[in-house]
Structure formats: structure tokens, C-alpha cells
């Protein structure tokens, strides 16, 4: 061995054979030996010594009896086993690289960290009615309890007969044409069905028109399925109604479907029949599928009427999604559904794909399916929330008034759901980073909102407030927001 170190002998043996690091790594791979480039660099720099099996490989590959120095041999079993093999780590799949769902993103992470440290946060961020004292009707709870032991098994993958019958009748009331029992699929919330449908429908490179701002799960699921979400603008000046001219501009030969979220999250807009009619015309002209997300259709205020877009498109292939998370305040029970309507022959192959996806997940939560009939029939407690004396309506009025009176804030009055999407004057506040605004508000005032960027809305300076908390809590949060806006500039 003489005076040389192992590293020097290894270097010399490689040079003698004219081998580079990459050559040795390749030879190792061919022989089924795990040797990474960084691992080899460590041997060459003398930072670590190989284990016996690796030493044997290097010796045979280099045709040289490489031996370790006595001291490294002595320390080798303990050290080498810890240091030698680079630690294998695991990343998210690259499929998720361009997927974002920031409603539960970094700002919420910070809020949770603060809460863990004992800070009380006023949360205006999530559209989850139950924690704010909105209770599902007793009858629904009782019916779930009494059917629990009958709902232990899987159901038909599309859902229980009783649930689908009730959904079919609901669709009939909404004027959605031609929905048969076999056209209805229950899901673990609309969320599951959005993902399921996008997986069944979207090929790489397909374009799906999605509103901006949107409920971001749509964009996320289009992207995850390999498609491209092309955002059409909802026009703030027109009360956040879709800009049909912009929709037309964005249709290309790759466009397959258009998503219409009505009533809308995050703006609370309710679309007039004429606008829906215009969207249907664009879809008709370009032979697009209509995907309607109508989960807030029973949370409409000011005596307005919700129109299902599928009712205006009996000749097109439409999928309408709805559920009980919001109208029956049971977001945690996970029950939603979708109904295929209109010209179903156009989507025969797609229906096969949807059936396959539906079968693959076996069925949706059966106890929750068992109360669909009770929930959709009979007394609708949600109606009492949205009349002028109801909690949702009063909280909407209160939040709208307070925000309208704040210096540098402008806001469109929502007509439905329980969200409001205010704008901060760009000249006054100079907001260029929505996330930063939300973080600063959180850290300074302990108020949690969702930044506009989280809804695929590009212009900075917007944010969403959920006005489900009771008025006193909303008042406290709005006082803090007002105070913050007195001094905050970006
Ligand atoms: N669609 C919209 C527009 C939503 O706002 C939400 C939830 O906030 C969902 C779908 C998901 O609803 P579900 O609880 O049925 O999964």
C-alpha cells in the first residue's frame, strides 16, 4: 500500500484504465450495483470509504486490488453503513408540478403554525358551514342514524336507487332535460366527481375553458388530467358575470368543454338567463361539452331565481354537478352528484370512461347517500337562511356595507353563496403580491382570508372573505381589516 491513501489509489486505478466517474457509475448499474455519482465523488475526495461489497466491485471493475487503510477498515462498518449510501428521498409526482390548490395553501399553513403557538385567528377562509353554527335539519341526522346499519356494504357504483331517484326528480324540477336514473352518479362530494370527470374526459393537450376567478379545484383537476385550463374572464364591472366575448376569443380547435360555476365561488355572482343562453350558443357553435357546477344553487338571495344552464341546452352534452355540502350544511358527510343530460349520444365513449372511473372507486359514501332523499324532499331549512331576515343574507348585507364604506376598498354585492371578493385600490395600496398581503394581514391582525391569486385571478389586490361566521365575529374581523388598511402599503 505504501504511503498512498485509498482515494489516491482509486484515482490512479481509474486513470490507468482511462475511466471517468460516469463510466464507473454505468458499469455498476450494468452489474446491478448501486453506485451514485455523488457517492463515488465522496470516495475520490477521501470523505468516505466504501463498504466491503463496494470495494470488491471497484477492485474488479478497475482490475486492481484496492485496499482500504487500516484505520478506515476499522471504522468502516459503523461509519460507512451510515454515510455511504445516499439517503433515498421521495418527491411528489411530476404530474403535480403545475397543479395548485391554494385555498389551503401557504397562508393557511402559517395560520395553523400560529394557532399551534396559542394565537387566536379570526378565520374567514373556508366555506364550511357547520363550524359556524349552521346545523343540518334534525330529520336528516335522524334518518342517517336509522339507516346506518343498512349502509355497511358497497352500493351500486353510481349510487343507491333512492338517492338517484330523488336527484332525478330534483333535476326535473330544475328543467334539466332527459336525465335517466343511469345518467346520475353520486360522489364523495362534488370534488371527487370533478376529478373523476376530468380523468375520464381530458387527453393531453385538451383545452378546457374555466372561469377566472374560479373555484381552483377545476383548474387543478384539468391540469392533473394533462389538459390545459384556459381561463375566461368574469367581468367585475358587470357584477362578475362571464365575459362572453372573452370566451369566444379563447376557443381554439383544442377546446373540449366549458366550465360554468353558477352561483360562483369566489364572487357570489348569480348569472342571468340571457348570459347563460349566450354561453350555450358559444358551446353549440363550437360543439363543446358544458360542465356546470351548481353546488350553491339553493343559496340564492334577493328573491332571484337560479337557472340551470343544462336546462337551456337540450341538444348539447351537459354534466351538471350539485351536492348537499352547502345547502344542507353537511360538507363533512361528503355527498355530491352529477347528472348527464341533453344529447347523450354525443358522449357515448366519454360515458364509458366515466363508468369505468366510477366503477374503479367502487361507490361513494353509502350512509351519506341514504339521506339524499330526505334532504332533497320536504322542508328546506336553507331557505330560512337566505331570506332578508335570514342569517346568511343578513351577514352578507353587513359585510358588504362595511367593506363598501372602507377607504380604498370596492366590492360587488354578492347575490348567492356565502363569499365576497373585494378589491383594494391599486394606487393606494400598491399590492403586487396577494400572498404577501394575506400573510401580513394574518401576522399583524390575526385575520385569515384567501388571496385572489388562489382563485386563478391574475390581477393582484383581490381577496375572498367567507361571511359564514356570526355577525359579531365578522364585525371584529372587519374592524381589524379596516385598521390594517389604514397603514398597510406594499
Ligand atoms: N364546487 C364549488 C364551486 C365549491 O365552492 C366547492 C367547495 O367549496 C365544491 C365544488 C366542492 O364541494 P363538495 O363538498 O361537494 O366536494
What does this molecule look like?
This protein is an alpha/beta fold and 490 residues long. The chain is 42% helix and 13% strand. It contains 20 helices and 15 strands. It has helices spanning 6-17, 21-30, 37-44, 52-62, 70-83, 106-116, 138-147, 161-173, 189-201, 217-224, 244-250, 273-286, 348-360, 366-369, 372-376, 382-386, 391-405, 426-429, 434-445, 471-487; strands at residues 122-123, 184-187, 207-212, 228-235, 241-242, 255-261, 289-293, 317-323, 336-342, 409-410, 419-420, 423-424, 447-448, 450-451, 463-466. It has an eight-stranded mixed β-sheet with strand order 2-9-8-7-6-3-4-5. A three-stranded antiparallel β-sheet has the order 11-15-14. Bound molecules: pyridoxal-5'-phosphate.
Amino acid at each position: 500500500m505504501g504511503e498512498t491513501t485509498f482515494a489516491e489509489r482509486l484515482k490512479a486505478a481509474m486513470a490507468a484504465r482511462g475511466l471517468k466517474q460516469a463510466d464507473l457509475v454505468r458499469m455498476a448499474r450494468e452489474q446491478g450495483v448501486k453506485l451514485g455519482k455523488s457517492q463515488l465523488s465522496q470516495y475520490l475526495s477521501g470523505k468516505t470509504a466504501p463498504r466491503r461489497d463496494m470495494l470488491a466491485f471497484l477492485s474488479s471493475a478497475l482490475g486492481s486490488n484496492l485496499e482500504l487503510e487500516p484505520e478506515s477498515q476499522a471504522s468502516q462498518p459503523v461509519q460507512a453503513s451510515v454515510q455511504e449510501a445516499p439517503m433515498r428521498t421521495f418527491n411528489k409526482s411530476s404530474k403535480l408540478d403545475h397543479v395548485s390548490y391554494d385555498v389551503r395553501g401557504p397562508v393557511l399553513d402559517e395560520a395553523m403554525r400560529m394557532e399551534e403557538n396559542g394565537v387566536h385567528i379570526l378565520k374567514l377562509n373556508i366555506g364550511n358551514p357547520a363550524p359556524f353554527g349552521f346545523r343540518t335539519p334534525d330529520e336528516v341526522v335522524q334518518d342517517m342514524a336509522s339507516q346506518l346499519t343498512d349502509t355497511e356494504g358497497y352500493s351500486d357504483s353510481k349510487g343507491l336507487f333512492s338517492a338517484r331517484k330523488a336527484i332525478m326528480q330534483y333535476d326535473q324540477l330544475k328543467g334539466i332535460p332527459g336525465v335517466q336514473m343511469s345518467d346520475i352518479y353520486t360522489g364523495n362530494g362534488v370534488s371527487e366527481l370533478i376529478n373523476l370527470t376530468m380523468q375520464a374526459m381530458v387527453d393531453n393537450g385538451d383545452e378546457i375553458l374555466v372561469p377566472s376567478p374560479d373555484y381552483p379545484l377545476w383548474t387543478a383537476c384539468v391540469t392533473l388530467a394533462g389538459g390545459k385550463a384556459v381561463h375566461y374572464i368574469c367581468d367585475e364591472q358587470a357584477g362578475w358575470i362571464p365575459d362572453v366575448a372573452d370566451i369566444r376569443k379563447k376557443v381554439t380547435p383544442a377546446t373540449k368543454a366549458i366550465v360554468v360555476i353558477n352561483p360562483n365561488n369566489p364572487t357570489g355572482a348569480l348569472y342571468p338567463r340571457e348570459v347563460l343562453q349566450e354561453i350555450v350558443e358559444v358551446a353549440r357553435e363550437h360543439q363543446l361539452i358544458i360542465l356546470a357546477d351548481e353546488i350553491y344553487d339553493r343559496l340564492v338571495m334577493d328573491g332571484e331565481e337560479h337557472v340551470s344552464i343544462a336546462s337551456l341546452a337540450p341538444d348539447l352534452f351537459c354534466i351538471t354537478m350539485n351536492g348537499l355540502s352547502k345547502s344542507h350544511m353537511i360538507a363533512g358527510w361528503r355527498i355530491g352528484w352529477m347528472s348527464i343530460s341533453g344529447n347523450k349520444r354525443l358522449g357515448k365513449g366519454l360515458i364509458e370512461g366515466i363508468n369505468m372511473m366510477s366503477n374503479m372507486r367502487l361507490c361513494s359514501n353509502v350512509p351519506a347517500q341514504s339521506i339524499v332523499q330526505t334532504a332533497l324532499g320536504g322542508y328546506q331549512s336553507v331557505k330560512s337562511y337566505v331570506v332578508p331576515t335570514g342569517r346568511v343574507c343578513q351577514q352578507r348585507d353587513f359585510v358588504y356595507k362595511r367593506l363598501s364604506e372602507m377607504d380604498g376598498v370596492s366590492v360587488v354585492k354578492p347575490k348567492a353563496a356565502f363569499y365576497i371578493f373585494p378589491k383594494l385600490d391599486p394606487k393606494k395600496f400598491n399590492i403586487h403580491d396577494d400572498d404577501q398581503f394575506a400573510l401580513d394581514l394574518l401576522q399583524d391582525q390575526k385575520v385569515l382570508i384567501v388571496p385572489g391569486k388562489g382563485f386563478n385571478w391574475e390581477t393582484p389586490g383581490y381577496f375572498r372573505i367567507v361571511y359564514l361566521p356570526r355577525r359579531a365575529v365578522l364585525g371584529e374581523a372587519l374592524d381589524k381589516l379596516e385598521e390594517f388598511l389604514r397603514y398597510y402599503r406594499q
